[in-house]
């Protein structure tokens, strides 16, 4: 009986599955690579920003006339020449580095975890443009108390330069800050100088990194598609070769042999198929001989033994 025709195109879905699996694998690899690169780059940028903040705080602190700063003790001195002198130093440093949101000084008070502002470089301004000066838009005034409970790096700056380990928050917003001690002529630490970067700067760095990675992914996407397609062709080739032979077997042609023009694993598939078809062909020839009419007739014509 002739077998139904074998649809060799039934192997096509295999190539599709290989293509999809390869593409999925490439995408997973790309996502893992993106996450790793993003983590490394953003952390490196964060550490560099921390270093910059500490360096700026140390550099500006060296320019502050500490003796003048120590004389600023009352809010009535907010508009004094001494205050303006130090304020101008801070504002000059801020104009040279637009990323800096504010430079300020704080001194300890008799109350634990409380410091008071001395001079700040920032100004009161309507930053959100709503024609209302809100609390977060107001300049920190001379003598204003600041709760340092949640800012251990700020307190530590009374001894040596330090920098926030993470983004910090207060009524003015979210910041990453660097600090440096201010010492008098005797070497005694009498105040700290702080330099603020807005958290928006940090977020922008991260967004820029993410955008660069996404652009790189879009550039590599066609390459990944092509690589997945050609690899799926290569991996499914042995099955396409076998499909040709299976098509012949399905039509009852057990003498068909695949051409021995392939190499590597494809040659192994071809030799295996040809060995199987040779075995089937030999078995069928033997079965045909056993079941041929001539042989049956010979058995019928044999003389019977006479009793």
Please provide a written account of the structure.
By secondary structure, the protein is of the alpha+beta class. The chain folds into two domains: 8-36 and 219-291, no CATH class; 44-126 and 133-206, PAS domain (Beta-Lactamase), CATH 3.30.450. It is 53% helix and 15% strand. It contains seven helices and seven strands. It has helices at residues 12-61, 66-70, 81-96, 152-156, 199-250, 264-290, 293-300, and strands at residues 100-108, 114-120, 145-147, 162-163, 168-170, 173-183, 189-198. Strands 1, 2, 3, 4, 5, 6 and 7 form a seven-stranded antiparallel sheet that branches. α1 (12-61) runs antiparallel to α5 and α5 (199-250) packs parallel to α6 (264-290). The longest helix has 52 residues, at 199-250. It starts with 11 loop residues before the first helix and ends in a 7-residue tail after the last helix. Residues 1-10 have low confidence and may be disordered.
